[in-house]
Structure formats: structure tokens, C-alpha cells
């Protein structure tokens, strides 16, 4: 069964929609109800299309839905507008990753809910 | 004036060479390369499909169109590899681009010509003043059966075109469609790989329809082959489009920029649209371009475009097809390719 959470989170998963606090200007992703500064007034924005690798690792023993992709790379990426996102970095070998390398976000298939279930899509990163 | 306000393409980074496929099945690679004029083909990544390819191509089209996504009133995707049998590809793509909810969406299917169908309808709705902007996409992650000749060509990629009335980069001068019921190539519901009628696919299918549409649009518009700067014909292999073009009076130089099949393979619904995108990448203001698609079953859509001054402003706002085809290639061996294309049976 498709999870209600996947559906609810489409704007952030598909378009990297974030919220910017109108008080302190901090961009939150995923979008928040209350900012760290205590304010509750936000305007809609997007995470920048590009960013920099802050930290990374390679997964060699993968959970069931990802076995076919192993080994695959996971990184913490700091987007150009300061938002930090944990994401897969695809289309590259583990040896190609390094802290400080530039990436851009792309739209990819995340996983399939079994053979007959829905296909989950979202963002990943590729090296630029 | 109605025409294209933005165009863009996307091609996955993975490739397999003709030699690698030929070696797997004990075939002579030099005969295949000579006979079909193919060198390598694109292969989708494990996490890529018609939907993700459409999103990336459409993003590039939006960069060149310089319009807000919400202004697009219709989105049509033509493909023979929509990921779902029931559930549109277009809804996912529109959601990812931020076009929802005020938009009309449909998925098209007509073998290799579904992409130009999407373009044809998007263009018509703008021309009729029903919509300000409409997007037509042709994208595919085509599969040929293992060991079949189609395996050398069936590839992945796509292109997106936004139609509108202001700020256009290429005006549509004329269109023509030519269609008959011809059983040259098909795939039944539930079958994994398509079947084709062997020799039947050439003369009575591809050539009859491509030449039929090509001759008719030339006659209707009053143009001669020599009036055109460029022409693109659907590319099931390297040889067919060159032969069809020659029969219509076109020289190889007119077809060269859009003849992307040696490095790309046959991207089905994305084939002639991506050849057209590659041609726009090099075209000059005032150039006339002929585009003729072909889809088995069978039919051809023909378009005549006239390039405007704006091409020089938008060309470099997104990646070109040549860059997509020649940069950052990752080569797969046949084993990796079989895994990437889901040709290996796994336990659930
Ligand atoms: Zn705040």
C-alpha cells in the first residue's frame, strides 16, 4: 500500500520545497511548523539546486529494497542556501567522492514497493 | 506565431558498445556496425525511467523558455515505456516540476512516434488559443529482447518542448500526419519484449510512412529539400534515416547534426525529438528544419520549423545534446547491462 507519508511529503521529496522563517531568515528542510528562533511565520522556498559534500559514506551491505544498487554512496550535502540534506550520490564510484566536491540535485527513482506496489521518486545528487 | 519557446534533452550516462553485445551472442560486431551504422547506445541507470528522464529534459526546456512552470497549461508525455500500466507518468512529472494542479495531463503511446504526438497536440492547443503554454515530451527506456537485432539499438533518453505564442525560438510553419494500420512491430499487454515482423519493418512500414509524410508536407508547404538547412528522420538504426532522407532529396550534411543514432541508439519516442533538439543546438536564425517521426503500427508526423533570432539567446542556457552524448560516459559490460535492464531473474 502506498504510504500516506510519501504522498504528503511529495512537495519536499519531488521539488525540494523548504520553508524560510520570516523573522530570522533561516531556511528549514524539511519544512517546519516552528523555527529554532521561536517564530511560526514562514514563506515557501526551495533548496538550492547545487551544493557541496560535507561528509559521505559507502553502503556495501544494503537493506532489501536497495540490494541491487550496492555498493552505493550516501552523503550529507550542504546546499548553496545552507540547508543540509542526507542523500544518495549516484552515477559515480565510491572512489570519486570527496569532502568539498560540488553536486547537483536530480530527480530519480528511490525504490519500488515490491513488484506490484507504487514507485517512490525523489531527489538524489550527482557530481558536477 | 506559434512555436517552441523552450527545448531541452536528457540522456543517461551509461553506455554499452556494439562489440560488447555482439560478443555476448556470438555475432560479428563489424557486420552490425557496418549494416546498422551503430557504435554504442545509452542505458538508463538503475534509478532512471521514462518519468525521471522526462523531468530532467523538461527542466532543461524550462531553463531555455525562461517561464514559470505554473504557466504551463498542459503536459503530454509520449513513450512506449511508461513505468506504470495504469497511472500516468505525466502526474509525477508535473508534480516534480511544480506545474500542478491547474494543468491538463495525458500520456501518449504510439511505438516510436508517441513523442511527436505529444508535441503535435501541445502545439495544436496553443494554436487554438486554449492554453498559453503546453509541453510535449518524448522519452523512453526501450528494451530489445536478448539476442534480437533490436538489442543493439534500443536505448534511453528524451526531449521536452514547450509550445507558446511569444518569445519563440522556432516557429511551426506546417504539420502533416500520415497513418495506416500496419502490423510491423507490437507488444501485447503483459509481454516483456516486443515482437517485429522482420523484413516487413522496412519498406511497407518505415519507408512508406516516413516518405509518405515527408512528400506530403513538402507538397503542402511548397518547399523543396534544398530550401532546408536541416532534416531529421526517425532513427531505428543508422541506415534507414539516411536512405529516407536521400530519397526525399536531402544531402547527408543536412541530416548530420540530428543523426545522433550512432552514439545514442534508437530512443524510440525520444529518437527524432532528440535529433531535433541536437539540430536546434546548432541552427541559425532563419534556418528551415524538417522533422519526420515514425511509429510502428504505423504512422509518421512531419513538422516544418523556422528558427528565430532567439535561438542565439537560449542555446547556452541548458546542456546541449552533443555534450550529453559525448561527456562523462560510463561503459557497462554485458553482465552489468543485464542487471541494469532487469534481464536477470531475482528472488522477490
Ligand atoms: Zn526563525
Summarize the structure.
The complex is a heterodimer of chains A (128) and B (348). Chain A has 128 residues and is mainly beta.
- Oligomeric form of this entry? heterodimer
Total strand segments of chain B = 14
Going by CATH, the architecture of the largest domain in chain B would be 3-Layer(aba) Sandwich
Distance between the termini of chain B: 54 Å
Q: Which percent range fits the helix content of chain A? A: under 10%
The percent of residues in helical segments of chain B reads 25-40%
* Element-by-element helix/strand order of chain A: HHEEEEEEEE
- Gross morphology of chain B: globular
Count of structural domains of chain A: 2
Taken as a percent bin, the fraction of beta residues of chain A is: 35-45%
Distance between the termini of chain A: 36 Å
Low-confidence stretches of chain B: none
CATH class of the largest domain in chain B: Alpha Beta
How many beta strands in the DSSP annotation of chain A? 8
- Which of globular, elongated, flat, extended, rod-shaped describes the shape of chain A? globular
Strand order of the largest sheet of chain B: 5-4-6-7-1-8-13-12-11
Which characteristics define this entry?
heterodimer, A: 128 residues, 2 domains, 5-stranded mixed barrel, 3-stranded antiparallel β-sheet, 8 strands, 45% strand, B: 348 residues, alpha/beta, Peroxisomal Thiolase, Chain A, domain 1, 9-stranded mixed β-sheet, 3-stranded mixed β-sheet, binds zinc ion
Structure description:
The complex is a heterodimer of chains A (128) and B (348). Chain A is mainly β. Chain A folds into two domains: 12-46; 48-128, OB fold (Dihydrolipoamide Acetyltransferase, E2P). Chain A contains two helices and eight strands; from the N terminus they run ααββββββββ. In chain A, a hairpin with a 5-residue loop joins strand 1 and strand 2. The longest helix of chain A is centred in the N-terminal third of the chain and has 6 residues, at 10-15. Chain A is globular and about 45 Å long. Chain A starts with a helix and ends with a strand. The mean pLDDT of chain A is 93. By secondary structure, chain B is an alpha/beta fold. In chain B, the strands form three sheets. Chain B has a nine-stranded mixed β-sheet, with helices on both faces. In chain B, strands 3-2-14 form a three-stranded mixed β-sheet. In chain B, strands 9-10 form a two-stranded antiparallel sheet. Chain B has helices spanning 18-24, 29-36, 50-65, 89-97, 114-127, 202-221, 239-247, 252-255, 261-264, 271-280, 311-314, 321-326, 334-340, and strands spanning 3-10, 14-17, 40-43, 72-78, 104-108, 133-141, 156-164, 170-179, 185-186, 195-196, 230-233, 288-292, 299-307, 330-331. Chain B folds into two domains: 3-169 and 314-340, Thiolase/Chalcone synthase (Peroxisomal Thiolase, Chain A, domain 1), CATH 3.40.47.10; 173-307, Peroxisomal Thiolase, Chain A, domain 1 (3-Layer(aba) Sandwich). In chain B, a hairpin with a 6-residue loop joins strand 12 and strand 13 (299-307). In chain B, helix 3 (50-65) packs across helix 4. Classes of the chains: A mainly beta (128), B alpha/beta (348). The interface between A and B is medium-sized, with 18 and 22 residues. The complex binds zinc ion. Zinc ion (ZN) binds next to loops of chain A.
